[in-house]
Amino acid sequence: MRLAAGSLVLVATLGGTSPAADRFETILRNGTIVDGSGLLPYRADIALAEGRVARIGHLSRAVGKLDLDVTGLYVAPGFINIHSHPSADALARAENMLTQGVTTELLNADGSGASELPSQFARLAAPGLAVNIGGYIGFNSVWSSVVGLSDRRPTPDEIERMRALILAAMQAGAWGVSAGLDYKPAYFARTDEVVRVVSAASPWRTNFNNHDRVTPETRYSSAAGIAETLAIAEASGLLGIVTHMKVTGREQGSAAAVLETIGQAGARGHYVAADAYPYLAGMTALGALIVPAWAQDGGREALLKRLSDPELRARIAAEAGQTLVDRFGGPDVVHLPSLGKALTAIMAEMQAPAGETIVRLLEQSNPIAILRFGLESDLRQILQHPDTSIACDCGATTATATHPRNYGSYPRVLGRYVREEQVLTWEDAVRKMTALPAATIGLTDRGYLAAGMAADVTVFDPEKIIDRATYEDAALLSEGVRHVFVNGVLALRDGSITGAQGGRVLRRSAGMPSRPMTANADRRVAAKGNGGRFGVDLDVSQKAGARHARGDFKLDLPAGGSLTATDFGVLQLTREWASFTAQAKIRPEGVVRPITVVVDRADPLTPGAGAAITVDIEGARAYRGTLPPAAVRLTHESRR
């Protein structure tokens, strides 16, 4: 739909009514609210209705169909996993994720997944979803679908085909472009080629998240891999995310220096974020990062053919063994969960060195391997970095021979690194699981507990929350998460899943930019304009340290009625963009509905069209329109 400047356009129809005054679907009473903002926790009741946060405060006179006393428990936004690898058949129950407090999973991480998102998500959602899902478009998938498995240069036409796949995914609601340049065949793509492909997403103001490429030419330097990720993001005009950030090999102990490169990018005006999980071991296919790239050129069949050549086999085994030493420290760091054995034990059984043992295993299959790395001191510094989100590099699963991060990541952070070791505070750890990852990928209505926000809620016991999964027994469920709501639906009660399927497929729009989390500062958005039968008048502000915004918002409706905001959520704001949620009364019907408002003065997809105004009424109408840029004011002032 073409939108004229100064007008607002009706694009859907209104339906439904709000609950009666002081009557809600759910009330959580007497809890300690850790709202995602990073501000100190506080005591309050919280009411949920129509899949949204309806009210927060002292609700002694209110009535809930479900009324839960959560005295002594912490009430937080649902945790958002922005680096997820779920099993399709596990999303309908997602027990391992709900017992960690996770309510949203972002799929197709590390460049993986389908290159055609609508059919992928239709297939995943068909059996029902216990958690929300969204997806990236994977660079690796796009590259392999066009270029193939061989180490060769793409033609200009192939570059354009890959760019078209990226653009189509953005239009279908992708939350960014993921890559795993450490994995073949994406490993074969040159840096400038990656930039040319992923820059197709630049007008959408989204992100590039990458499993860094660590190469023998750099002596397996984590710093060099991170530098490449930052360079690609900056050159392509995307927000960079250093995903499952770590410092390995000879560079162990240098986390502070590596984190400084992220700060330097910010100083150049290019914000960079990161995510990390709370373990000193990763998990991937045994051959993926150990077998030399030249041996994997052409895929598995080509590798097996080379292994049948005695001379090439000896070379592959020797280089794999050396990589194991140079990159990971040696064979004693490798455990194969599907076999239930350490690599060193298998070496003893085969009476062979590490490289030859790996080659023999790969001739049979490519088993999953757990590879230990790094120092605890590095991990702590990475977790403490203000722009590091907690993400588990895991997903909904029923697997038992796996990494404990699938069952324990979020409770491990809260139990070990907050309660026991005080590496993080409660409020900062929750921020890193909620509002920070939401801003990083572009979510506008999740990540905070505030009026009008989605009712994704995690309730946990701060005295008991802890992980139980170990490398030896990886499928033990975590303890301490008591209740979880997904879009207001009770998915976990008293620590046990209910079987309810309140999850949704979440799609990103052009008005949801990846961005830094809004700083704790005074901010304000104001806009006023009339055009045709529509009019908008808003002036909303939030003081530094305040938990929610205040102000006025009114939308004139085409039939002569109006929509007026009553209770405001959090005002999120960047230089040219602002968003807030609220509860709003619709007249003349008199119903109250949750709304999400976006004011976008620099939508790059509609250059010259003016400032875009979007008002979404949950489950009902959506209004779209534009105002002249001069009619919109955005201010953001830090207090000294």
Question: Topology of this structure?
Answer:
Layout: E1 7-10, E2 23-33, E3 42-49, E4 52-57, E5 63-69, E6 74-77, E7 79-81, H1 95-98, E8 102-107, H2 117-125, E9 132-135, E10 137-138, H3 139-146, H4 156-171, E11 177-180, H5 191-198, E12 207-211, H6 222-236, E13 239-242, H7 255-267, E14 272-276, E15 281-285, H8 293-296, H9 300-307, H10 310-328, E16 334-336, E17 341-342, H11 343-350, H12 354-364, E18 368-372, H13 376-384, E19 388-390, H14 405-420, H15 426-433, H16 435-441, E20 457-460, E21 481-486, E22 489-493, E23 496-497, E24 522-531, E25 534-542, E26 550-556, E27 562-568, E28 572-573, E29 577-587, E30 591-600, E31 611-617, E32 622-627, E33 632-637
Number of helices: 16
Provide the low-confidence segments as ranges. Answer: 1-20
Tell me which oligomeric state these chains represent.
Answer: single chain
Q: How many DSSP E strands? A: 33
Roughly how many Å apart are the termini? 45 Å
Which CATH class of the largest domain? Answer: Alpha Beta
**Any idea what the CATH superfamily of the largest domain is called?**
Metal-dependent hydrolases
The portion of residues assigned to helices is 25-40%
CATH architecture of the largest domain: Alpha-Beta Barrel
SS class:
alpha+beta
Q: For the report, how would you describe the main beta sheet?
A: 11 strands, antiparallel
- Strand percentage: 25-35%
Radius of gyration, rounded? 25 Å
Q: Could you tell me the mean pLDDT?
A: 93
CATH topology of the largest domain: TIM Barrel
What count of structural domains? Answer: 3
Shape: globular
